[in-house]
């Protein structure tokens, strides 16, 4: 399946309720999207890295996962995203190993990190 602007818009519209946006002044500093127990998307603008946004967004995602009564939060991290690997390991997420993440009809090799959450 080819990703198009329309498929992106459709998918993004479905994720609004699970998305938290961080702002710094009038600018978007980052966002996190949660779908069930998955911390599906995390983005932090390079200009605000090191200022706490990268810790705050996943912490908020963990609270969302817990409130939805999922016991474990998990992101799928693609190969080569060493910054994410280091972040999750530093923040005490457990590396559960490799798996194939299926999205839009494609299989993407990833690593799954997990963290137990409580309400």
UniProtKB/TrEMBL annotation:
<dbReference type="GO" id="GO:0016747">
    <property type="term" value="F:acyltransferase activity, transferring groups other than amino-acyl groups"/>
</dbReference>
<dbReference type="InterPro" id="IPR000182">
    <property type="entry name" value="GNAT_dom"/>
</dbReference>
<keyword id="KW-0808">Transferase</keyword>
<dbReference type="Pfam" id="PF00583">
    <property type="entry name" value="Acetyltransf_1"/>
</dbReference>
<protein>
    <submittedName>
        <fullName>GNAT superfamily N-acetyltransferase</fullName>
    </submittedName>
</protein>
<dbReference type="InterPro" id="IPR016181">
    <property type="entry name" value="Acyl_CoA_acyltransferase"/>
</dbReference>
<feature type="domain" description="N-acetyltransferase">
    <location>
        <begin position="1"/>
        <end position="118"/>
    </location>
</feature>
